[in-house]
Design goal:
alpha/beta; Rossmann fold; 4 strands; about 45% helix; globular
Amino acid sequence: MINGDAVRIGVVGPCGAGKSTLVAALKQNGYEGKHIAQEHSYVPYMWKRITDPDVLIYLFVSYPISKGRRSLNWNEAEYQEQIRRLEHARENADLIIDTDPLDPEQVLTQVLQFLHESENKV
């Protein structure tokens, strides 16, 4: 919570970045997280219109790591298109995490630390 109010957390990133895993972990820790499928939208600001989060988290994953995490039937051009569609969200993200070298618990730790630090600034 920030300043006594429940904080709405939006999570964006390309397929295989760990969005669903992070949202589930946030819920287990008492936060309201929303997986925003911005990577599939042609509307650059869809993340804002649908969720209008208090905190926007961008999870990055490289193409080779994304393919290793999930059985994705896509090529690098399709991955690059998702990255392009996510540009606006990335530019407006409050926190950007490169998930390539991290396991889900490490990603959650970074997010919880950021949220805790944000709460202390208010």
